[in-house]
Amino acid sequence: MGAYTGIRATRNMLAACLLLTAGVATAGIWDEGDIEAGQALFNANCASCHKVTNEVLAAPGLAGIADRWGASDELLVNWIQNPQGAAESGDAYIRSIVARYVPTYGWMTAQAVSPDDIKNIMAYVQNPPDVVATADSGSDCITVDEIETIQETNDSGVWFLILLVLFLIIALSAAGVNRSLTNAVNQNAGEEPLEELPYENRVRNWAWNNRLVVSLIGLFFVAYGAVLGYQGLMRVGVVEGYKPSQPIQFIHSVHVCENEVDCKYCHHSAYESKHAGIPSTNVCMNCHKAVKKGRRYGETEIAKIYDAIGFDSESGTYLDGEGKNGFISPQDSYEGDPIRWNKVHNLPDHVFFSHQQHVVVGGLQCQNCHGDVETYTVGRVAKVDDINQLVDKYPGLIELSKPTLTMGWCIECHNKAEIDLASSGYYEEIHHRLKDNLRGNEELRKYLEDDKITVKELGGWECSKCHY
Ligand code: HEC
Ligand code: HEC
Ligand code: HEC
Ligand code: HEC
Ligand code: HEC
Ligand code: HEC
Q1: Which residue has the higher pLDDT, 122 or 56?
Q2: pLDDT at 330 exceeding the cut of 80
Q3: In this model, does residue 467 exceed pLDDT 80?
Q4: Would you tell me how many other CB atoms lie within 10 Å of the CB of residue 46?
Q5: What does the pLDDT read at residue 9?
Q6: What is the dihedral angle through the alpha carbons of 163, 167, 173, 177, rounded to the nearest 10 degrees?
Q7: Is the dihedral of CA 151, 153, 156, 159 positive or negative?
C-alpha cells in the first residue's frame, strides 16, 4: 500500500515537474524566440513541406499561424512533436485542421524538435527576414514564356538568312520598279519601251554589266561557305544545346528558382556517386501528392505522374494502397507505366566521369558544367559561351572555350582548375613531400613555382584517368 502511494506520489510529482518545464518552455512561444536560429531549424525540419508564406508546398503555408492557431501553446508543441498524439487530445481546433488537411496531405510527420526549437521556429515563421528579400527576387525567376524566347532567338545564323532573303526580295522589286519607271519615262518621251527579254537574260545582262560587284558578292559567299564548312566540321560530335523533348513538361525554373528546391533534393547521388541520376517518381510524389495543379499546364502534366505511379488524386490514395511509412512500391500490384525520361547528357562508354569527384572533392558548382539550370525548362546540354556569361551570378566559375562534353573541354578545365590545397589534408601532405624533394628536381620545381597545383599536375591529363 505504502509503496503504491509512494509511486503515485512520485508520478504526480514527475507530472507536475513535466508540466512546469513545459509551462516554462512554452511561455512566450510566439514572441521570444531567436529568429536566426529558427530559420536554420525551419529549413532543416519543416521547409520540405511548409513555406513561411501563404503558399502551399506539401502542406499549408505557415504565414499568420500565430493568429490562426486556435489551441493552447502546449498543444502546438505536442502537435509538432507528435501530430497524431495531439489529435487524441480531442481539442476542437486540432480536430478541425485534421479534418481539413489530412485527407489531402496525409498526416504531418512527427518532428524531433524541442520546445525551445519550436519557439525559435515560430519567431522565424512570424518574421522571416529573407522572405521580404525573396519576394522581390522571386520575380527574378524567369517565366516559362521568357525561357522559350531566350532559347529560340539565340540562333544568329537563322537571322542572317532571313535578312538575306529580305534583301533579295527588296533588290528584285526595286529592279522591277526601276524598269517600269524607265518604261514610263521612255513612253512619255515617245520612245519604244524596253525590249521584253526573258527574265534569265535580263539577270545575265545585269550581271555582265556589273562584273566587279558580282564577283565580290561571289567571293563573299565562297568565303562564308568555307567558314561555315570549317565550323561544321569542328562541331562534328559536339552536342551543345541538345534538348530532347520529355514525357512530362517538367520545368526546372518552377522548382529550383520559384520554389527554391535544391538540386540535391532531386539529384542527391551527384554528391555520393559517379551518377547524378534522375529522381524517381516517389520523389515527385513527396510534393505532388499535395500539389495537384500547376499554373501553366493545370492538371494535365501532373496527372502523368499519378498515372505512372498509380495514384488517385481525388481520393488521395495509391491504387495499390500506401505501403509502410508512406513508402510506395508501384511495382507491387499497380501496373504503372514508369516515366521514361530521355537522356540528355551521354558520354561515350569509353570515358569515365564521376560527379562526386568534381562536386565534392573538386568543389565545383553544377552550373560550371550545366549552365544556369534554374532558368531551364527541361534539362539540356549547356553551351560553353552561355556558361561563361554566368561568372557574375555564380562567383568562382571557371571560364572555358571548348564545347562542353568534348575531350578538349575536360582537358582545358583540368589545365585551369586549381586544387584547393589548404582545405584538404591529403593534398597538403603531397604538397609538403613535393617541397621536401624539390632540391635538384627541376621537373617538380616547375610545378610548384607558381604555388598552385592544377588538376593536370596531379595527373588529370593522363589518358587512363578518363579512359577505360
Ligand atoms: C512531411 C511534411 C511535413 C513536415 C516536415 C512538417 N509538417 Fe507541419 N504540417 C504538415 C501537414 C500535412 C499539415 C496539415 C495537417 C495534416 O495533414 O497533418 C501540417 C500542419 C502544421 C501546422 C498546423 C497548421 C495550421 O494551419 O494550423 C503547424 C503549426 C505545423 N504543421 C508546423 C510544422 C513545423 C514547425 C514543422 C517543422 C518543425 C513542420 N510542421 C514540419 C506537414 C509537415
Ligand atoms: C519539393 C517539392 C516538389 C518536388 C519534389 C517536385 N515538385 Fe513539381 N512542383 C512543385 C511546386 C510547388 C509546383 C508549382 C505549382 C505552381 O504553382 O504552378 C510544381 C509544379 C510542377 C508541374 C506543373 C508546372 C505547371 O506550371 O503547370 C509539373 C509538371 C511538375 N511540377 C512535375 C514534377 C515532377 C515530374 C517531379 C519529380 C521529378 C516534381 N515535379 C517534383 C513542387 C515539387
Ligand atoms: C565537371 C563538370 C560537371 C559538374 C560540376 C556537374 N556535372 Fe552533371 N554531368 C556532367 C557530365 C560530363 C555528364 C554526363 C555523364 C555521362 O554521360 O556519363 C553529366 C550528367 C548529369 C546528369 C544526367 C544523369 C547522369 O548521372 O548522367 C545530371 C542529372 C547531372 N549531371 C546533374 C548535375 C548536378 C545536380 C550537379 C551539381 C551537384 C552536376 N551535375 C555537376 C558534368 C558535370
Ligand atoms: C524537383 C526535382 C529537380 C530539381 C530540384 C532539379 N532537377 Fe534536374 N532534373 C529533374 C528531372 C525530372 C530531370 C529529367 C528531365 C529533364 O531532362 O529535364 C532533370 C534533368 C536534369 C539534367 C539533364 C539530365 C540528363 O539526362 O542528362 C541536368 C543536367 C539537371 N537536371 C541538373 C540540375 C541542376 C544543376 C539542378 C539544380 C540547379 C537541378 N537539376 C534541380 C529534376 C530536378
Ligand atoms: C569545370 C572544370 C572541369 C571540367 C569541365 C572537367 N573536370 Fe575533371 N576534374 C576537375 C577538378 C577540379 C578535378 C580535381 C578534383 C580533385 O581535387 O581530385 C577533376 C578530376 C577529374 C578526374 C580525377 C583525376 C585524378 O587525378 O584522379 C577525372 C577522371 C576527371 N576529372 C574526368 C573528367 C572528364 C572525363 C571530364 C569531361 C567529360 C572532366 N573531368 C571535366 C575539373 C573539371
Ligand atoms: C580529362 C579526361 C580525358 C583525358 C585525360 C583524355 N581523354 Fe580522350 N576523351 C575524353 C572524352 C570526354 C572523350 C569523348 C569526347 C566526345 O564524345 O566528343 C574522349 C574521346 C577520346 C577519343 C575518341 C575520339 C572520338 O571522336 O570519339 C580518343 C581516341 C581519345 N579520347 C584518346 C585519348 C588519349 C590518347 C588520351 C591521352 C593522351 C586521352 N584521350 C586523354 C576525355 C579524356
Answers
A1: 122
A2: no
A3: yes
A4: 22
A5: 43
A6: 140
A7: positive
CA 405 to ligand 3: nearest atom: 12
- Segment 176-180 mean pLDDT: 83
Cell numbers given for 39 = 530559420
Closest CA relative to residue 81, chosen from 127, 125, 117, 106? 117
The three cell numbers locating residue 108 = 504531418
**What whole-number distance in Å separates Cα of residue 182 and Cα of residue 190?**
12
Q: Among 33-42, 212-221, 377-386, 447-456, whose mean pLDDT is lowest?
A: 447-456
Contacts of 420 (CB under 8 A, 6+ apart): 363, 427
Answer for the pair 251, 244: CB distance below 8 angstroms, yes or no.
Answer: no
Q: By C-alpha distance, which of 261, 258, 42 is closest to 137?
A: 258
Closest CA to 250 of 307, 304, 316: 304
Among candidates 386, 405, 370, 345, which has minimal Cα distance to 151? 386
The radius of gyration of the chain from alpha carbons, rounded to an integer in Å, stands at 34
Atom 13 (ligand 4): residue with closest C-alpha? 278
CA distance 49 to 59: 5
C-alpha cell read off for 59: 502542406
The C-alpha atoms of residue 186 and residue 203 are separated, in whole angstroms, by 21
- pLDDT, residue 58, reads 80
Contact 357, 419 (CB under 8 A): no
Question: Which has the higher per-residue pLDDT, 28 or 168?
Answer: 168
- What distances in angstroms separate CA 159 from CA 152, 386, 440, one per listed residue? 11, 19, 60
Q: Is 278 in the pocket of ligand 2 (CB under 6 A)?
A: no
- As for ligand 3, residues whose beta carbon falls within 6 Å of it are 263, 267, 270, 275-278, 345-347, 353, 355, 358-359, 364, 366, 368-370, 405
